[in-house]
Amino acid sequence: MIRRLLVLWALIALPFWLTAATGGPGGETVPVPGAVVGKLLPHAVFHPVYVVILVGAIVLLLRFRTATQNGLLRGVALALVVAQAAAIVGMVGEEIAVLQHGGLAAGKDVFKEPLHLGSALVTEPALLASQILLVAMTAIAIRAEQTVAAARNI
Known about the structure:
mainly alpha
């Protein structure tokens, strides 16, 4: 279970925090000195790459969910799947806005477009909720493992 949790952290938390730390797809979403994501991954490519990562996380979450007997853990995993799916919907909306406004050549003005803004209002809360749910799921899983280990030692 710990190995699956580590992979989930790599698929859910790592991309989120790397994006936040490096300034987002435009490199200036958050004023961070040395922001590089916008230079390494153009905005039109950022969203599809992130969607692929989110889909991978959903697949692993569904496997994780079926592998556990803990009802609370299954419920949190399901909530995390829903949050990841909402993030995908938001990312797709943002990508449509980027493609409608120049694709690879889209400028910073795309951030002000209503479709991009509205989609970001879905994406960002979903990604933040995913972080909280991932922490909760990890805590529950660790506690469940400790309970099982303690029961074996009795």
